[in-house]
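Morning F.,

Quick status update on the modeling queue. The single chain you submitted on Monday has been processed. Sequence for confirmation:
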Amino acid sequence: MDRHRFRARLAPVVSLFVIAAGATAQTAPNPTLAYPTAPKGAQVDVYHGVSISDPYRSLEDVDAPATTAWTGAENRLTDSFLGSIPERTAIKNRLTNLWNYERYSAPFKENDHYFYFQNTGLQNQSVLFVQDGRDARPRVLLDPNVLSADGTVALGGTAASDDAHYLAYALSTSGSDWQEIHVRDVTTGRDLSETVKWVKFSNIAWTHDNRGFFYSRYDEPTSGNKMTNANKNHKLYYHRVGQPQSRDELVYDRPDQPDWLFNGTVSDDGQFLIINVSQGTDVRTRLYYIDLDNPGKPKIDNPVVRLIDKLDAEYDFVGNRGTIFYVRTDKNAPKGRVIGISIENPREERWTTLIPESKDALVSATTVGDDIAANYLQDAHSTVRFYSGGRDIRRDERPRNPQDQRPRNPGSVYDDTSTAPIVTRERPQAIGGFAMRGELQLPGIGSVDVIQGRQGDDEMFYSFTSFLYPTTIYRFDLKSRQNQVFRSPKVDFDPSAYETRQVFYNSKDGTRVPMFITAKKGIALDGSNPTLLYAYGGFNISITPAFSPANIAWLEMGGIYAVPNLRGGGEYGKEWHEGGMLAKKQNVFDDFIGAAVYLISQKYTSTPKLAIQGVSNGGLLIGAVLNQRPDLFGAAFPEVGVMDMLRFQKFTIGWAWTSDYGSSDDSTAFNYLRAYSPLHNIKPGTCYPPTLAFTADHDDRVVPGHTFKYVATLQAAQSCNNPILVRIESKSGHGAGRPTTKLIDEAADRFAFLVKELHMRPTLQ
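Structure tokens below.
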């Protein structure tokens, strides 16, 4: 559920197999599988007067002996099934070759030091490098691969101090959302002694005196299971370098609002701590701040100012010019706009539109140099526009009125050894709109996922990718307006043999839905092509073109890869999202079924050749459509899905998803959740398509009990010989930070399953 988003040295191709489009193998029917007996009870819950049976409730306890015995037996069955598919070895070999290319992140810069991630190809985790200048020789700053033999310790968030002397970085183990923050000296490459624990859903933001950073955490669990316990009472803290966590200062919490989440960022000028206040995964936010008084001697305990304190829209801090805040919002602009708010006169009627709403969805905005770089989605692909303004800003550099000074806690006043300069703050009195300065020239139709830059810089970096274009890093000179490749990967395949086209189809209610279709050029539209249909459809998350070595292998196998942009996502702004949430969630399923019907009617594929895949909220999607149209699909991958829609809110961060789903605690929501919940709509005696579900033993986002109960129920209900299997990854979580070896193994199992179940015939070359 996430809301947020990072080779030329190639091994020779030992074996490459291509599956001829349309070829059908003469395979024998699947034998009847003997499924392990799941522990079963007589649990019945009553919701609003309705009795609901939950016979596999005990599988929610992932550590219970009966559960571990069942999961072990299920994994052995799945391993035996997949291991019997002769093409799997060749698939894995080709995936390994395709994955073996150098890839990079867009660098971020502090004090003329450039920090970026690089993976040589098959490293389990990407390595963090630093350059002490743009032309300096890069050196390794942090290599997560040395922290665990199997690559299951992953690097999460990173932030360098303003003077680039320190790096704060977060580590997670086995895919858990729990993290620990460490501090490394950038010059020596050695860690300081302190460790900050029980961090979750946190940013890291340094004050500009370089002496500490803000972070968010929960209290240490004192009882129950830390992996499945509900997370409540998020808190924002400040950690001073060189001190133990026990001395960290609580900056803000709300015991009266246990479901609120707090994340802090420091403005580019170091003047303000911006506190983003969210309620679960609701896109609507509140915006608070602390005036730190002076970047060189920040006053951490200054009062929290509730700039926007009503949950009526999304408010995302973009930057500031003195006391004018730039804020991206969908208030009175469903597709987004940027407004200016004077914190000295913040009444809504005084807000100024800087960048007006467009016909395209504004998904992010970043201050770079003297511009705002606005990242839009135009029919689900990126376009970046530059806006300049502020020349009519009238600046007043007079010192503050002494009457404005508030009493301070001397404990938060720093001594004169601070490394940051004392600055005179700007106090703009008025601001006008911004004018569009130009548009970033992109290589084609694709996605700009990351823009790195800040106010006053003369350069920005960004990443560009598409289905056939591996992520490439560009440097844009903000003075000369010149674009140049900064890091370009080389992958062992020829993209010119393939193409991506965008089509539009009508959903059940007539809504026009876009879909990307990627395939080999000239592929025959005769209904015989194996096709993988992937989608998400929720939480305002946009699914845009992206490169994947696994998908390239699928294309080489003669496959088609199709991605529809369902309602519930953010591709067309607020209304598109709201059209697929709460009581309108069925629209998401209808959009997906409509995509399948389109692909079949246009003879891209046919039911026996059509596989479907979704992850997390997308796993819920796959479970729901399998129940509603089991006759439509040839195979299915519901992965780490939310399958029990009546109990999801009871585990870890599940309560946060009620903004998109609703909750069974509410009688109205109970009725529509029950109507599509994957677990509760499985019908005994139905022939379900071949299904391989995925989950992980350390998934503390969507706990594995969802998939365990779903698979046990589906296996018991299956009326034909189509296999119902589950792949349970060990020492792994919801997906973030998963090592390369595990990604390759997963993809090999996925495609081997499709070779068998879609009756594909491989030809080794």
